[in-house]
What we know:
16 helices, Arc Repressor Mutant, subunit A, alpha/beta, binds pyridoxal-5'-phosphate, Aspartate Aminotransferase, domain 1
Amino acid sequence: xxxxxxxxxxxxxxxxxIYPVGSALPGVRRLSEQHGVSVSTAVSACQELEKRxxxxxxxxxxxxxxxxxxxxxPPRLSLVSRSPRAVSGQDxxxxxxxxxxxxxxxxxxxxxxxxxxxxxxxxxxAFRTVLRExxxxxxxxxxxxxxLELRTQISRRxxxxxxxxxxxxxxxxxxxxxxxxxxxxxLTRPGDTVALESPTYYGLLQVIESLGLKxxxxxxxxxxxxxxxxxxxxxxxxxxxxxxxxxxxxxPLGVCLSDxxxxxxxxxxxxxxxxxVEDDIYGDLPLTGPRPRPxxxxxVDGLVYYCGSSSKSLSAGLRVGWLVPGSIxxxxxxxxxxxxxxxxxxxxxxxxxxxxxxxxxxxxxxxLRKMCAQLAMAVARMTDRVTQLFPPQTRVSRPAGGFVLWVxxxxxxxxxxxxxxxxxxxxxxxxxxxFSASGKYTHCLRLNCAVHWDxxxxxxLVALAGLL
Length: 468
Ligand SMILES: Cc1ncc(COP(=O)(O)O)c(C=O)c1O
């Protein structure tokens, strides 16, 4: 068949990196001209390569190369300390985040997307509009629970994800970090134990440290997510005050729990009456397929305290997040407002109104489609380069969403010690130890894939690989 011959030819070009991982194939019309076949033959050849997993079709965008030359094994199941621990030593993180604003350093460390990926012009227009149309309101406080326009937009988005959340259920915060902090203040007292995935987002460990809590790390599979068996054993053994999870594209593993596992987690926590703080900050960023449902969408008992923000999907600079408190205690909703007020009095009025205006004008979904396609390419490219440059036996995560890679290195390398050397060479990464309360993962590191990719980035990655 002619289409199969064309498929073989295209596959060979992909193997030879004429079309590297993450790149778009020419459109089918162009392919038909180049290879002297009909458009329908070109379409069939691309579909054949899609079936083999070599290409990925993106709606209204075309076919993209997805097969990696030799996919590395995913990292191993984490083996963690089985008892609650106080958190310390997280202040090292400042060195990492400060590197983000250093123009001399290629930021592969903090999970901050390259601004080129963000709709900066549309955000600017939104600010201009609200500053012009609501000039007086913009110079005043927008006290908790925050601007009604924004709460309405958040509740609409959540309704689209099958969460029955009304505008009056939503509290606007300064960030997802603040939402998690308020949720944990509602649910815990100093000395209490909080169960978490391991490895987990270091900011969460910092909240635990600042509130004087203890972290109980639950082993987490890099492909299927938190071990339900280990979580159940922990619930039986320890008095756990709350569980914090990132069910959609966890940081750093990029795992998305299946709908079944999400419901199993909720059932298990419900059996023990343990509330869940759900961090859904990456939920809008699937690398393929539809936006997954949050666990909140199955919550009928008010067990889930839902946290989100615009930081990863739209703009970290807005400093706007949201919390939908559960109802473990009757007054949790009003206490959440007061805790936000006590924390910072209010959230920036122009930021709240600009975000509401941006979401209202309906361009967010279209922008997200483009953003996710670009992130998929960025993750594929970084995976490809790490596979080629890092030592053999290196294990690499296969994120289903978000834009970070978790890398497990062979041997006794200590990535915390390596960080200073890397910074001196002009490249940052996040050392693995930051993602654990019990000093695990010293041989791991996390890479931010959403970087501007050019010769300098390539050199930085080669320099980092040289250190390993
Ligand atoms: C999983 C996770 N949650 C929360 C945050 C904090 O986001 P925000 O800027 O909204 O506080 C981050 C940022 O890296 C994150 O990765």
